[in-house]
Design goal:
- The chain is built from eight helices and 20 strands.
- The protein has about 350 residues and is of the alpha+beta class.
- It folds into two domains: about 170 residues, Rossmann fold, CATH 3.40.50.300; about 80 residues, OB fold (Dihydrolipoamide Acetyltransferase, E2P).
- The structure holds adenosine-5'-diphosphate and magnesium ion.
Amino acid sequence: MEKTKTLTILEGNKICIGDLFSLPMTYYSLRNLTKSYEDHHAVQDFSLDLGKGEFVAVIGESGSGKSTLLRMAAGLLAQTSGEVYLGDKKIASPEEKLVAGHDEIKLIHQDYQLFATISVEENISRPLLRYDAGYRNKRVSHLLDRLGLEAYRERLPRQLSGGQQQKVAIAQALAVEPEVLLLDEPFSHLDAIQKRKLIFELKDLLKEMGTTVIFVTHDLDDALWMTDSLVVLQKGKITQKGNSKALCEFPKSKYVARLFSSINLIPDLPGCYLRPADIRLRSRGGLVGHVIDQRFLVHYNSLQVRLRESGQVWEVDDPARKHKLGDRVYLHYDEEKVLVLKS
Ligand code: ADP
Ligand code: MG
């Protein structure tokens, strides 16, 4: 069970006692982290509190500051300002410490580096050299088993697929049972099926170990296979936090809205948008347009429709796969589906 705390808040002159079992105690805390370079901030005033065993995904486009954030969170890059705490302990930055990094916090990134000349098994046991042989062997066998690497224990890294190598890198990071695992787009070399399988396996293992996880990615879909607690990062700043339903239904900006799907601007209604899935194709009324492109996708057809009045091109989902190139279509939508986005 998650650790919780009793919360006493002074609200005006009232004292409220928080629910004993609803507030996870902050365990890992990133406080006002900022990294500034000469002419820009890579990360600006980023704060996030996680309970023990909590999973959070940080999503942002390339260049939004994800890797910079995680390197500071791991104590591998000196922040310009702000602090990182694990429990009561302040995590020292590389400027404050002789050897950068901490055993309790492990970072895994895209370009994992395994020792090329030693076996899978030796790669995983390398971080455990200080431990006794009995424990070391037990731990390595457990990780090989849990990550489905048993059959490859004798192989060299180059004799493995990209996905298998990434698993070995993950097993290596988990060997010392870190309290926190930071994942920097570690699945980008894998195909969609491998990725999903690895995320499921890893999630189970991390839950079992009680590991606290921050997973950064530019791909919302990947994030959602891991967790529904989302933080959106744009130009180094948090722009919105919440679960997928809240962010999808109430995005605060076009940037957040577009993480879920493309959006179509409604003619003559500045700042008002519709998602392709929220537009209905009818046989009369509504906005008139012509299908100028049609693509067969896995779950529906995607249409490009040129609107007759405004000349705008909309993306529209056709789940019934009814409409063809050149068809005249009549587009309808419900008012409550309109997204009002100022920025
Ligand atoms: P992401 O991982 O989201 O792609 P990064 O954290 O790598 O983003 O980079 C965030 C921003 O900081 C980018 O604009 C990048 O060019 C800049 N940046 C990263 N490292 C440095 C550096 N050492 N010097 C100057 N700018 C940097
Ligand atoms: Mg990056």
